[in-house]
Write the structure tokens for this entry.
Amino acid sequence: MQDTLHKFLFEDHSVRVEAVRLGPAWQQTRINHAYPPAVNRLLGELVAASTLLAANLKFDGSLILQLQGDGAVALLVAECRADLSVRATVKLREREVREDDTIQTLVNPNGTGRFVVVLDPPRDTPGRQTYQGVVPIEGNSVAEALEQYMLRSEQLHSRIWLAADDHHCAGILLQQLPSQGGIQTSSLSDAQESWIRANHLADTIKPDELLATDSAAMVHRLFWDETLLVSAPRPVTWRCSCTRERVADMLRMLGQPEVDSILRERNQVEVCCEFCGKPYEFDQVDAAALFQPVPSVENKSVH
């Protein structure tokens, strides 16, 4: 079974519909981790949301969603690249996690939590500049928090439905689109009517139904009486971008005194990727090479 994202457009171009249901990619995200059920649901919803939002990236980079707070979940991260490859991780504190915990009780119990959206262009982009938006965590779910963020940042009316369990994570996104190029493809009243109708139909979605049904079938079931323009489906995969070179860069940033201290204590430095769990080992020779000055190259004239 291939994980696939589907995109649709109402015939009057007033409403965008996206739907995704992940199985293998979600399983691969969880393979090295055993999170409590409430944390697992929160992470799965964030993974599905990152996929839906990254499908609209206008550059070949990454979209990163982060939840930071002072609860049992210290940090929750989902990253989806423009090619719809995903990865995710969680940092937990040693606190009790209940089955019925929500985003507020897990991440934001004291109201200091933050929802962060990062748009990260490729590292080799000339004049590369990362965009970061930070807002309070509002609402009792990832979907509600995202809706508030998108309304503030994009000034687009957006609705999102998310669900996750041990086997799948899934989501549906609706966005009310502005007129394009100054040309209104439908009257304002007709466009507003389409948006209200789309919301009314999508509000009938139940989480269990979202998880059990193929995403394209779900959209057709919801909007069977609408004429939808269909885009080519796009595959979604799991992929971690960690490399030995990136770990080496992180150790250089840590600094030679700190690395030497770890070597004296353990005889080697071992770093495990927080996303995929892959270990990277640096012995004393490897560590010394990290901090060797790069030899200069002299330009010599050739006669």
The chain has a mean pLDDT of 87. The chain has two domains: 4-180+193-238, 244-290.
